[in-house]
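Retry 2 of 3 after timeout on previous attempt. Resubmitting structure tokens to design endpoint.
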């Protein structure tokens, strides 16, 4: 079985887990921090996050038990809400077996109510919606009069409208400043999802020559078609600066600057003014679109509560770096950069970019009135709270091969495929850099910069460092990072499987991971981490320090179908998913610690009471 362009399978959003701890403590009452998402239909699973959720805890939504309950750990509970008689906000309650109770008034808002008295309300709109207005280059769509420009159609939208855009190339800058409501979002989508329209900047839009590196219109060394502007500007081809907006199935390519900006217009250049809190904009979804061939950043989602980025194909971002320019001019760039709350990033492919494919929080942006030194003491919001990042694919990205996890507070990073084919076009500093980077370049005054993040069921292969945990900001604090059931295949030329230079990390769990990288080695120190627990891992050779638990095993042959596998540069979009499956007799079979914290594997297969080690469950 091969992955080609997308992964198949069913994945449960909201899975998390806590570090396994030793010892005991007096029971504490539960605390509900929030619900994600905090509104939606009865059919949508939600995750209640907080603390002190004991095994056997019960959940009540508007006084009724949910139809499904998955107790992930002491900080997360995933539920299928009960059917409802009412629309709108209702209370959420968690009750521990010892009677300890937590309530969140209006914690979840129903957008459907199938048990409501007749006549029942209309169902909430889907991500596609029924066309109410049209755009077509010809001025007509199947007999319906149409605007000839996307912007003209957008300017006419009201809450509840769906703008359907016919196939074709639209050479224009797009600005969405009129938003919808939670019950009546504005939807801007392809008329035919099988023949999608494209916003094409043709490398002339948006205008501006304000790149810090300068512009060189006469450059001839570009591998890309003319016009050969060897720069990027900081303007966006598409900007969504209003809430309750869905952008679905409309490609955005060839921006002379960046592709899509979604979020708080106050963060839009040239000011980049940071906010002390988040968020002023709610519920922006960017779905099923190709965002590609941008001179600058692919997409930015800033200061949004309820952002979703799903089903997108993101490639060739920051491609002014394809020019023969000094490294100091090239920067790092991003395929997607995100800050906000209740963020979902799923089912995307990030590949073949001259940029970091995905940056979550941790931005080194100097706000108005700040100096570079202020980056380590600022109160400006540069984080993501409550992240679900699942079922994405990353390969052959120039700055980092995989995601860069910066300032995150509460998150699940599950079932992602991250690899390099070894294509030197995408090497920086002579090698394929980190597959998974975890650090914060921006300090914060209060609370940890990175906390309560779980990495599970991820498959990682052929980068110089498979997992790199770094301490860049000297005052940043890191708490409660957990790694469960990940499979680490060979690193590039025997590089480290896990690197750690964090000096202010406390609470680190490492369980049920399969490390089949050459030498299986680690670098840095794990001995000084307070609260480090580990066990039931398999290493191809003995790692250094305390990361190896008493129940870990060392084996050169852990029993993978093809433990030496790496994807080929000649067919980079093909990855043999059979490679990390377990053969009969593998020591990884039936030897993981039993836990309800990881109910499914990489493919969505339920895990039994005696699960397997690694991302695959036989």
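Retry 2 succeeded. Sequence:
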């Amino acid at each position: 079985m091969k992955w080609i362009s997308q992964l198949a399978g069913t994945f449960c959003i909201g899975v998390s887990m806590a570090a396994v701890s030793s010892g005991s403590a007096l029971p504490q009452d539960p605390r509900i921090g929030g619900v994600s998402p905090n509104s939606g239909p009865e059919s949508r699973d939600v995750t209640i996050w907080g603390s002190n959720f004991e095994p056997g805890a019960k959940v009540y939504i508007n006084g009724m038990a949910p139809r499904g309950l998955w107790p992930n750990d002491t900080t997360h509970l995933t539920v299928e809400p009960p059917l409802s008689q009412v629309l709108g906000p209702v209370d959420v309650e968690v009750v521990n077996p010892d009677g300890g109770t937590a309530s969140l008034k209006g914690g979840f808002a129903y957008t459907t109510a199938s048990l409501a008295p007749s006549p029942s309300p209309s169902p909430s709109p889907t991500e596609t919606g029924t066309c109410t207005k049209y755009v077509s280059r010809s001025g007509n769509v199947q007999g319906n009069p149409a605007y000839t420009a996307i912007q003209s159609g957008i300017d006419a939208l009201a809450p509840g409208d769906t703008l359907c855009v016919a196939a074709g190339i639209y050479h224009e800058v797009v600005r969405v400043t009129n938003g919808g409501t939670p019950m009546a979002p504005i939807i801007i989508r392809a008329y035919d999802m099988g023949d999608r329209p494209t916003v094409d900047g043709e490398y002339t839009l948006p205008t501006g020559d304000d790149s810090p590196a300068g512009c060189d219109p006469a450059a001839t060394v570009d591998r890309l078609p003319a016009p050969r502007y060897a720069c990027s500007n900081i303007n966006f081809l598409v900007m969504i600066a209003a809430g309750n907006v869905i952008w679905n199935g409309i490609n955005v390519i060839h921006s002379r600057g960046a592709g899509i900006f979604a979020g708080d217009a106050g963060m839009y250049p040239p000011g980049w003014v940071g906010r002390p809190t988040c968020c002023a904009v709610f519920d922006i979804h960017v779905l099923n679109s190709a965002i590609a061939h941008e001179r600058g950043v692919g997409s930015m989602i800033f200061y949004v509560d309820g952002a979703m980025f799903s089903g997108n194909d993101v490639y060739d971002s920051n491609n002014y770096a394809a020019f023969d320019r000094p490294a100091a001019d090239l920067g790092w760039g991003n395929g997607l950069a995100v800050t906000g709350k209740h963020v979902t990033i799923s089912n995307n492919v990030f590949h073949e970019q001259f940029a970091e494919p995905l940056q979550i929080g941790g931005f080194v942006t100097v706000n108005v009135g700040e100096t570079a030194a202020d980056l380590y003491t600022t109160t400006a919001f540069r984080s993501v709270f409550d992240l679900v990042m699942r079922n994405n694919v990353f390969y052959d990205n120039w700055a980092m091969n995989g995601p860069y996890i910066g300032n995150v507070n509460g998150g699940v990073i599950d079932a992602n495929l991250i690899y390099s084919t070894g294509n030197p076009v995408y090497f920086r500093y002579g090698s394929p850099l980190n597959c998974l980077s975890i650090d914060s370049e921006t300090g914060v005054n209060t609370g940890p910069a990175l906390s309560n993040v779980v990495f599970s069921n991820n498959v990682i292969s052929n980068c110089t460092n498979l997992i790199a945990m770094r301490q860049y900001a000297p005052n940043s604090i890191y708490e409660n990072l957990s790694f469960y059931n990940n499979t680490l295949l060979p690193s590039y030329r025997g590089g480290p499987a896990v690197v750690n230079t964090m000096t202010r990390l406390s609470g680190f769990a490492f369980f049920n991971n399969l490390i089949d990288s050459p030498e299986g080695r680690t670098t840095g120190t794990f001995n000084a981490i307070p609260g480090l627990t580990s066990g039931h891992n398999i290493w191809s050779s003995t790692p250094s320090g305390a990361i190896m638990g008493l129940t870990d095993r060392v084996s050169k042959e852990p029993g993978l179908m093809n433990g030496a596998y790496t994807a080929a540069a000649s067919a980079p979009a093909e990855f043999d998913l059979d490679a990390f499956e377990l053969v009969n007799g593998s020591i990884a079979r039936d030897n993981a610690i039993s836990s309800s914290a990881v109910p499914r594997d990489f493919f969505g297969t339920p895990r039994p009471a005696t699960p397997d080690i690694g991302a695959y469950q036989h």
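Attempt log closed. The mean pLDDT is 81.
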